[in-house]
Write the structure tokens for this entry.
Amino acid sequence: MTGDQLVPFVFESLPVRGALIQLTRAWRRMQRDHDYDPLVRETLGHAAAATGLIAHSLKFTGSVTLQMQGAGPLSMLVMQATSQLELRGMATAGNPVAADAYPELFEDAHCAITIDNGEQPYQGVVEISGDQLADSLKGYFDRSVQVPSHLALVSDADMAGGLLLQQMPGQSVLEADDWQRLGYIAATLRGAELSQNSGIDMIRKLFAEDDVRVFEPRQASFRCRCSRQRAGEVLKMLGEAEVQAAVAEQGRVEVTCEYCGERQRFDAIDVSRLFVENTVSGPKSLQ
Ligand SMILES: [Zn+2]
């Protein structure tokens, strides 16, 4: 009884709030057009859960983009979630990947988290450290969000999930022992168990000793915001000469979205029109 959802909750007697996310259909859809190595897939699933949890905490309509980039076997990973919990993401790596553990996936890499409220994007860059993405994100919560947090992430082929606990700023004092205890509990989150239980049941099981108030679950989903117009912009960036050469050779060009697999085809007439428009259009607007 699991689905694509996020369950917010608070502790009645501790100044701590939490959210538990479970992604099943959305997570499988994200992998549909890719053949990921299990280690890459696990990291991508962790990224999906973490990005959804961060997006849930946004106080405005906007989006979160988590991007990992480097010279290691996992050269790029991008995960985006809107404040409506619409997610998309992909990773670029070999299969099999030349790594046996998370730290080996990266070399000279960094992880950037961009919060976009439609006006002034804000970016926090964190070091990639520890044994899994949750360790790397600890630095983000400490420095950029500046709210003490516990984060646990799990994923396999069928499910990606996560649990975020955050101290509530300006609330009553939280004993160090209590905070540590909640951290230990969060770290016991396991994918197999999360796959078997609804989010609400899972929260009740984990925090059986605490008085927890659970709120209405929020629906999450897979959604790609690609369009023919954006595909056209990609071609414009390649330049007219290169695109015309491809059309001359193959009769058309095709742009495939790496997130959802959708293909946009442009024939000779489409391409001519695209570059004519380019010469008469006004200043390039931001995406
Ligand atoms: Zn797409």
The pocket of zinc ion is lined by residues 224, 226, 257, 259-260, 262 (CB under 6 Å). Residues 38-56 form the longest helix (19 residues). The two ends are 38 Å apart (CA to CA).
